[in-house]
Design a protein that fits this description.
single chain; globular; 10 helices
């Protein structure tokens, strides 16, 4: 029988995923923009702050709970796991350079008094997007699964993985609504979360899709 603390951890991740997905939807953003137009420019910053404030306690709980050690990397495998984790962090930072981080954080919206729902920016492809549609999620999965695992960490890793899978699909519904056939063609050529042999774009193909 699962321990109450571990069940609580799983439910906390579920609650976070539901809240995060609901607040990230265009429907909620557009409703805020209609009903509280003066607050609309602050939506993205508030969303990011709330996301951070709700996920940090769950992460703390994951490491605070004790559980049996399920596996632990050792020897050369441990060095490899560390190398993969560092590479994932570097990749995450590199991809961020291709995003408008001021818009992502919500600072541009406040600075320009932009009351429109965010997420309507142009379609840009970083070099990593040539191989996987969601490179941040991919690097996140590498970070999640390269560490040692006890039962609480395994539950959190599985919850994060499930959220990345479901969240990426919800995100792509919005991207299809914004970019239409351009994004649909991109989806047909590049895998979603994990790179696959033969499924990538050349630099010229990436430039052509982004221009379209």
């Amino acid at each position: 029988m699962i321990q109450p603390e571990l069940l609580g951890l799983a439910l906390a991740w579920l609650a976070f995923a539901l809240l995060h997905s609901a607040l990230a939807s265009f429907a909620v953003k557009e409703r805020v923009a209609r009903q509280w137009p003066t607050a609309a420019p602050w939506y993205r910053l508030a969303f990011n702050g709330l996301s951070l404030a709700t996920v940090l306690p769950i992460i703390w709980l994951t490491y605070a709970l004790e559980g049996p050690l399920l596996w632990q990397w050792s020897g050369g495998w441990r060095w490899l796991s560390h190398a993969l984790a560092l590479t994932a962090i570097a990749g995450f930072v590199a991809v961020a350079r291709w995003y408008d981080m001021s818009t992502f954080l919500g600072l541009r919206q406040i600075r320009e008094h932009d009351r429109q729902p965010d997420g309507r920016e142009g379609f840009r492809l970083s070099p990593f997007h040539r191989y996987v549609r969601h490179p941040w999620y991919f690097f996140g999965l590498v970070l999640v699964w390269t560490g040692d695992k006890n039962l609480p960490l395994l539950i959190s890793s599985m919850a994060i993985t499930a959220y990345f899978i479901v969240g990426s699909r919800l995100e792509e519904k919005k991207l299809l609504a914004i970019h239409g056939d351009v994004y649909r063609r991109y989806m047909s050529r590049v895998p979603g979360l994990l790179p696959l042999p033969g499924k990538h774009l050349t630099p010229e193909e990436a430039r052509r899709i982004a221009v379209d």
